[in-house]
Write a structure and sequence with these properties.
With about 260 residues, the chain is of the alpha/beta class. It has a single domain, classed as Spore Coat Polysaccharide Biosynthesis Protein SpsA, Chain A, CATH 3.90.550.10. Helix content is about 40%, strand content about 20%. Strand 2, helix 2 and strand 3 form a beta-alpha-beta unit. The mean pLDDT is about 95.
Length: about 260
């Protein structure tokens, strides 16, 4: 069984080191890091690490082409049974990869599986989603807190809290922070849709796989910690990117208001 892993970085010097340390403790396969023209020293830091880590390959880019397109560069290079899409702010827990590999080997109808996510403080990170609608996206990202409290049940439904996070089920919209994919299916759909610069490409990928008859599942027996930097909330530029890619997503899959 061959497993590969790719990470896309952009100005992640402060967080990529612990992520790679965590991965190397639990994983011995190929690690491809695509750097999106970082300007904070991330690329130089990675190049130095690659001199000491045999399974680490750095793919430096001249411009920032976005999350999905950068991962696609790595996906085109791999030859494996399973491929992991990993954020630069992920920390693995014991046997995460082996548990997901075993899970996938027994379920040939599954195109990808996601683990249970935790914050650094140990609290659950509700990362499974229903398919996005205009209402739910506005409610979660732009709505005042008092209105969010009024629609709390709706928000819990959107984050699958009504189902809970203690047993496996199919996830309509997965988190791209850590995706354990069947490589041949990932290549069959052509990787991520290159029209998305960032955001919505993970939900799109799941829908593409389900259109081919593969399931997108959640497995609570495998766990990761996700540091999670919410750039689209704190940056006007990333908020604009979020809105533009949301428009691309709804133009492709149909506009869902509620």
């Amino acid at each position: 069984m061959k497993i590969t892993l790719s990470i896309v970085t952009y100005n992640n010097k402060c967080i990529i080191g612990p992520t790679l340390d965590s991965i190397n403790k639990h994983y011995a396969g190929k690690i491809l890091v695509v750097d999106n023209a970082s300007t904070d020293g991330t690329r130089e830091y990675l190049m130095d690490l690659a001199n000491d880590i045999d399974n680490l390959e750095i793919l430096p880019l001249k411009t920032n082409i976005g999350f999905g397109k950068a991962h696609n560069i790595a996906i085109e290079k791999i030859d494996s049974d399973y491929h992991i899409i990993c954020n630069p702010d992920i920390r693995l827990r014991n046997e995460t990869i082996s548990k997901l590999a075993e899970y996938m080997s027994k379920r040939q109808d599954v195109g990808l599986v996601v683990p249970k996510f935790f914050y650094e403080d140990g609290h659950l990170q509700a990362s499974n989603r229903q398919l996005p609608s205009i209402f739910d996206l506005y409610l979660r990202r732009f709505c005042p807190m008092f209105l969010q409290r009024i629609f709390q049940k709706r928000m819990e439904w959107y984050e699958n809290l009504h189902l809970g996070y203690d047993y496996e089920y199919e996830v309509p919209s997965v988190s791209g922070a850590f995706l354990f994919c069947r490589t041949n299916v990932l290549k069959k759909v052509g990787g991520f849709d290159k029209r998305y610069f960032m955001y919505f490409e993970d939900s799109d990928l799941g829908r593409q796989m389900r259109n081919l008859g593969y399931r997108t599942m959640y497995n609570p027996n495998a766990e990761v910690v996700h540091v999670w930097q919410r750039q689209n909330h704190s940056s006007l530029k990333m908020t604009i990117v979020f809105i533009r890619n949301g428009i691309r997503y709804f133009n492709k899959w149909g506009w869902k208001i509620f």
